[in-house]
Amino acid sequence: MPPASWTFALVTPDAMVGAYLDFVVERLHAHGFEVRGCRLIALEFPRMARMYHHSDDPPPPSGSRMELPGSVMDPLYRLAPGCVLVLRKEGATACQDLLRCKGATHPEAAAPDTIRAAGEHIIFNFLHCPDDAPSAAIELAYLVGPADATALRNAACAPDAPPTTPLNGLGQLPLCLPAFMGWEALSFPLIANRLRCRVVQALALRHGGDALSSLLEAQALLARERSALVGSASVADRLRIAQAAHPGIHAALTTATRASGDAVLTDGLAALAALYDLDGGRELAPILALAARGIYLSELEIVALDAHRHAFWSDTRPSAPVPPREPMC
């Protein structure tokens, strides 16, 4: 078997908002890259500055690579996730080949077949990738943490795709992506579905061997629920579909999470499950704590989850009968 090498691409929030992810993946495939793993991550300006500088110390005030304006980058990073794509390529030059695939920093100077040729300008230029193999190892650890970086790198370096690839590869990614507009951006059932898909993605990377069967079951149930939700005719129908699908999905995820021994994931999923009972618990903090385990939540998704829990607080409902109406999601 010929030698292979690995690298990663960080699809930046401007590309995610602009719906360029499919274009980026198509360009990567055209240049001979295989996507071996995906992760949605929350970005923030100081951490990115440290990553570019390869140091936990503050970057130099001038002459560093990270000279983009914080007034632009801070709000941009809150608009959408970054998407880490861990890549494998036959041959020993993955990093160098990805630099050529990425194209020039200024889109107006990028070659026509490169990714950045479709960018808007130097700030909205869609993609970051490391310059070389040592930088790839350092920068991936900054983005996803050392343990997850090692797992992703191992998946990229393996001769054959690991059995968990269907759970954290390109096939799972569309189910994890946040919605930026339309009814899907506000619907509790769809947001909960996507959030659970991200948990499947993370668990597959970290504990896939111990929980593979449960995760595959959860993935299949989530995909079936999503299909039914997208094809539903009304808000009320979506809530009924979600409540019917919830017990099986939650049971499979609970089994998989128990294998991980992660109390934060367990508590977060339990708090999310409680929101399906319209007279049940209304805790948001354990769900937000999932971010500490690398589970992405957009600001719009947080608002929608908070609105759902307030809309159905039983002790805030008027005691007098009110005309029936569709539940808000």
Describe the structure.
The model is unreliable at 316-329 (pLDDT under 50). 40% of the residues are buried. The protein is built from 14 helices and four strands. It is α+β, with helices and mostly antiparallel strands and 329 residues long. 53% of the residues lie in helices and 8% in strands. The chain has helices spanning 13-17, 21-30, 45-53, 70-79, 94-102, 133-144, 146-157, 165-168, 173-176, 188-230, 235-260, 263-274, 285-288, 299-311; strands at 4-11, 34-41, 82-90, 127-128. The radius of gyration is 21 Å and the shape is globular. A four-stranded antiparallel sheet has the order 2-3-1-4, sandwiched between helices. The longest helix is centred in the middle third of the chain and has 43 residues, at 188-230.
